[in-house]
Amino acid sequence: MIEAIRNFVTHPVAIGTWLALDAVALVILLVDFKRRNPEIMSLMKVVWTLTVLYSGFIGLAIYWFTGRKQISRDSLWRKGFRSTAHCYSGCGAGEIAGVLIAIGVFSFGNIGV
In the chain, what are the domain boundaries? Predict the structure, then answer.
């Protein structure tokens, strides 16, 4: 079972489909920023962009129901989702940066310096 899942998620068609859907979700988010929510703070725009990049339409749905300015009544669960998205995007960016830095540091041993 695990091997079947691994084969599916590493298949080029599955990866390409995920990337295409992710790109569509990102375009929808950016259009919403421009047309309907230009007043969102720039930091939160980065947060929501990273959230959608990592999560695709799931991240877009979380933004749509918790992060937009058109929400008439804020609630504890909405604040919780926004806080989680903020941490999720920052931690994800930190992990990506950490891996890239580690790759760079460890690659120095391979170039004969």
Answer: 2-110
